[in-house]
Design brief:
transmembrane, UCP028704_OpgC, membrane, 359 residues, 17 helices, mainly alpha, 72% helix
């Protein structure tokens, strides 16, 4: 089936812009603050990072299907691998740079460095471990996790073209399940985040098919589906927020931890996240124009330059604790806003953007 040319999906730009725009505040976790009251600091039933990985996969599914149809498997594969190489070239130097800064800080008696710093390996060994994904460090580590996903994306798209989307979903979930039950060593983060990426890839590949299917439904059924997804999204968010501040409400804390927390390896999280992302998308589509005219002035540039924003915030998160920690509600709120404002200024002025590939 052929589809009309795909217009830019502004709702996805808005969502990506929010997800990446609040990462600095989430990682710093300077609370209490205004933003900290509502964003959950990555501890809700669905985190911003999970949503971001899912949207990244969705866009890959959309774009690589177009490449496959127009140019064939070879061009599709090269485009995906080229993107993976770009991220690799950015990720490796960032890990080494953050490691150098961290080691220097430790040598000068600063204990505020991010956990996970390799302080003992020789530099040749450390460089080798970084190049081979055995070591990653800093607050831009997600870039390393993306590289294998882009290498595997052509195979996923090819399988999707053969209508094997159930296989993609099952394999990605099994990969997510493994770190909770077996020692998967350094590949654990790739498995943890890969499930969201490949769920998104499957959704993106079939994005236009799903829209066509939805359009064939009666008006009442469309309304029921939309209202149901949005309501479920609000319930997921509200439940996560309540349990964040009132964890004693859970009668079986061990079961809740196993299903939803477990360092974000809770077994039901990959099932909840697609509902939340879909409901958020539909809600934003409904109010896309007023959001674009207001918050969109910040969120859309963030969403369309998400890699730049992600790398920029990683420096703020890494360096700020050396200067000061969290203070009172007003200070923390103003600081969150200041970081977002400075990153926005960097996006608008394209400060050092030549060093980072476009999102």
């Amino acid at each position: 089936m052929t589809h009309p040319p795909q217009r830019r999906l502004v709702a996805l730009d808005l969502m990506r812009g929010y997800y990446v725009g609040v990462l600095a505040a989430i990682h710093l976790d300077y609370v209490p603050s205004l933003l900290g009251l509502v964003d959950g600091r990555g501890a809700l039933l669905v985190s911003e990072a999970e949503g971001f990985f899912m949207i990244s996969g969705l866009l890959v599914g959309l774009l690589r299907r177009r490449d496959l149809v127009r140019y064939g498997a070879r061009r599709m594969t090269l485009n995906s691998w080229k993107r993976g190489l770009q991220l690799y070239i950015v990720a490796v130097p960032l890990t080494l740079l953050f490691t150098f800064i961290g080691r220097t800080a430790v040598e000068h008696g600063h204990p505020e460095v991010k956990v996970g710093l390799d302080v003992s390996s020789s530099w040749p060994r450390l460089i080798y471990n970084t190049l081979t994904f055995h070591y990653t460090y800093g607050w831009a580590d997600f870039l390393t996790y993306y590289v294998p996903m882009f290498l595997l994306a052509p195979l996923a798209v090819w399988l999707l073209s053969k209508r094997l989307w159930p296989l993609i979903l099952v394999l990605s979930y099994v990969g997510f399940w493994l770190p909770s039950h077996y020692d998967t060593s350094y590949i654990s983060p790739f498995l943890q985040w890969g499930v969201y990426f490949f769920i998104g890839t499957a959704a993106g590949y079939h994005f236009n098919d799903l829209r066509t299917l939805r359009a064939r439904q009666s008006r009442n059924r469309q309304r029921v589906i939309k209202v149901g997804l949005v309501a479920a999204t609000l319930l997921i968010y509200a439940a996560g927020l309540v349990l964040l501040y009132r964890p004693h409400l859970v009668s079986s804390a061990g079961m809740y931890y196993h299903l939803f927390e477990n360092n974000r390896l809770g077994l039901l999280r990959p099932l909840v996240a697609p509902i939340s992302v879909a409901g958020t998308y539909l809600a934003i589509r409904r109010y896309e124009e007023p959001i674009s005219r207001t918050l969109g002035r910040i969120l859309i540039p963030f969403g369309r330059n998400s890699l730049y924003v992600y790398v920029a915030q990683s420096f703020f998160v890494f360096l700020v604790p050396f200067a000061f920690g969290p203070k009172n509600f007003l200070f923390n709120t103003l600081f969150d806003a200041a970081v977002i404002g400075l990153i926005y200024l960097g996006v608008r002025t394209r400060f050092l953007a030549v060093l980072i590939p476009r999102a």
